[in-house]
Design a protein that fits this description.
29% of the residues lie in helices and 25% in strands. It is built from three helices and nine strands; from the N terminus they run βββββαβαβββα.
Length: 200
């Protein structure tokens, strides 16, 4: 991971694909760069170091439950699904061996008081998820009170992080508040599930 002020040469050429909230993209193309902007959200970058295939996701937990049994609430399904989807896609396109995966995680900033430090909850969630699944993070850049632009080369695993200014923070916070409100409403109005079985 590098944190310079300008783009290193390898990030300044080829195809750049934006990873939006809710996306999960995987590739092995050497000239491809994934790019996203994170406030409270989390992006995991997962790469199979033998197959040179990698991907990036982008997710936001809408709320945290007060229940000790369901620590992160129903909205954690978004994060769990995003992480499982990315890992499974990389395994499918790669060698299929979990031991070959390299995981880097970014985001979780506290960029607006109205978000009630959703970023910290997202960080706790992704750390717990990876620990529960037996994975270790190779690198991380999480927390703080700023937004980030993250660029990731899925074939090489190289990542570039640039901290953004307060103008960007305000715009990103506004978008995240809108998404969180929509997800909260969906969780409230969603009909009860008959059983705990989910097919993927």
């Amino acid at each position: 991971m590098v944190l310079p002020s300008s783009l290193p040469p390898e990030f300044d050429r080829g195809v750049v694909t934006t990873v939006h909230q809710g996306d999960c993209l995987v590739s092995g193309e050497s000239d491809l760069t994934y790019s996203t902007v994170l406030g409270s959200c989390i992006s995991a970058c997962v790469r199979d170091v033998v197959a040179n295939v990698g991907g990036m996701n982008h997710f936001l937990l809408a709320e945290q439950s007060g229940s000790a049994r369901d620590r992160y609430g129903a909205s954690a399904r978004y994060g769990a699904f995003a992480m499982e989807q990315l890992i499974n896609k990389v395994l499918t396109r790669g060698t299929g061996k979990k031991s070959n995966l390299e995981i880097k995680v970014f985001g979780g900033g506290k960029i607006n008081a109205a978000l009630d430090d959703v970023g910290a909850k997202n960080i706790d969630f992704v750390r717990q998820f990876l620990a529960d699944e037996g994975y270790m993070m190779a690198k991380e850049d999480m927390g703080g009170n700023y937004a980030r632009r993250v660029m990731f080369k899925p074939a090489s695993g190289r990542a570039f992080v640039k901290r953004l200014d307060n103008t960007a923070n305000a715009s990103i916070a506004k978008e995240e508040l809108a998404v969180a409100a929509t997800r909260r409403q969906a969780l409230v109005t969603k009909p009860p599930v008959e059983d705990d079985i989910e097919l993927f």
